[in-house]
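Q: I'm writing up a methods section and want to include an example of the input and output format. Could you take the sequence below and give the corresponding predicted structure tokens, formatted cleanly so I can copy it straight into the document?
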Amino acid sequence: MAIISVSALRGARFPLFTNNPQPFPQFPIPSRRSSKLNFRSKGFTPFARYAQSQQDLFSSRLQDGIENLPKLVEDIVQTSINTGPRGALRLAQGIQAFLGVGGEWLADASKSTNSSAGLPTQMQLGLLSPQYLRRLFERMGATYIKLGQFIASAPTLFPAEYVQEFQNCFDRAPSVPFQEIQAILREELGRPIDSVYEYVDPTPVASASIAQVHAARLKGSQDNVVIKVLKPGIKDILVADLNFVYIVARILEFLNPELSRASLVGIVKDIRESMLEEVDFYKEAANIEAFRSYLEAMGLTRQATAPKVYQHCSTQRILTMERLYGVPLTDLDSISSLVSSPETSLITALNVWFGSLLACETFHADVHAGNLWLLRDGRIGFLDFGIVGRISPKTWTAMEVFLASIATEEYESMASALIEMGATNKDVDVMAFAKDLEKIFSSIQDLDTDLIVATARDTTTNATAVSANVVVDERQMNALFLDVIRVSESYGLKFPREFALLMKQLLYFDRYTRLLAPNLNMLQDQRISIVSNRGSRYKNSFR
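A: Here is the clean output for your methods example:
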């Protein structure tokens, strides 16, 4: 329900408060002798027609509402039955989280009211302000953390302030006691744990909202592995929460049919499908195997890898994988000790990822530093395939032209590519759109160059100082991305979610570029193969 309220905040206008109020029109006043208003008089004819049209519209909506009400009630009842008693428990937990964050807001508000500046504008929104809504989502757990991450990756659906704030929605959670993990392992394996694993470390390597990971060693082969274990009850929680969100969306569409044009229920269904895929480790295993097959087919196994999946001890709730040893691509000191040229390693990572966009059915859609490593043997390691994207050749062809036009500053081609990607029924003025895009990129270009030069020239700069500059650049690039979305929306464009997912990954790679190879131009360097053979065939169609 919170998400719907957030969406309503964008674009609110109050037409009654204008700088140039128009004079009221003069209408004839009926005679005092007349006991009835003469609606057939010339002055009242527009009002009569308007009233009639509004009455017809109301009658039509009322009729539609009556016809759709049984289906709505049936949906609510069936969804509630499917949710079961878990729904009541989640409601209690939601109230507790609401009270907790509400207490934080009250404490912060009391401090602000004591200052001369008064209550900041954002705080006036209460728990609907970006910061406090993000805190509420984090307290609510797995489902809402994932919803927060969806907001961060969907700038075409949510206001920029919320997209920016939910970039900081951290997926962290207390670990489940090892006894519960052991119970899940025994249940899923169908045999004693020590018949499969020689050793399982009781201290988790990592713990997130949906799963936690334990290091282990296989019996017999002595292979070092990690076991990703779905936390107990997490799927029930996801189903209960998502059912609640679905019911709210259905009721809102019923009360306001205009929302159906934005496919509110359809968006919720997409979110539900995406989240439930994350708790099905069979699907994640299939994603990993597809990526490994791509590496083999392209002869890239000496340059990059993904963990091998051990099928005999993997199920829908546990995933046993080869343990990889390495460091994140943001650890500059460790990377420099492992390879002589961090730039070469970065180029390898870029080429492997770009190549997978069309060579694989899905692409890795979460290449943050925790999932992209430089391994001890010098290869690039891709980890955690729980979040993947799917892109059509048409969208990627347009994306290639968009990226190339950024590098060459060909704004007309950039505008044409964005129009090709964005769904719209309007005729877009390409030249005007191109000029608006040029303004965005011109305003950010000088600051961007200054930051890169400052990093490259200062030979005494340590890794910490470089990282500080990277954070500034990341915010800058995020702002650029959101500006492009904002201007595109003003021309009626609505992009597929894959566009936002791709851009988010490019922002990650931009961060790695500024840290590991500050003089590298990711979009122009001939060593980086962004353009696919299929894309080059159609590239001229955008010019």
